[in-house]
Amino acid sequence: MSRLETMLGFLEHDPDDSFARYAVALEYMSLKEFDRAVEYLEALRARDPNYVATYYQLGQAYTALEQWDAAEEAYRAGIATSRTAGDLHAASELEAALDELDTLR
User: Regarding the domain with residue range 3-104, which homologous superfamily does it belong to in the CATH classification?
Assistant: First the structure.
């Protein structure tokens, strides 16, 4: 059984588990299946908008797909969410990713 199959099994067992959904998205990212990663990350954002880690990976996936505006929106939303949560380290990482995005466009 692959890691992806394992993660999908965890998610099937508990569809409300934010970490399981995030783990599935990360597996799709590692497989360079960015469209599928976006699908799971956007579903995670809709279900659990305060799951801060979502935003960095979502921005990365959109960047890989060269969907620049969507990547920027994900990073900016993540910065706001991180600051609200008091996670200044995550906010700083998201700000750096947003700055890097400007050089990729």
Answer: Tetratricopeptide repeat domain (1.25.40.10)
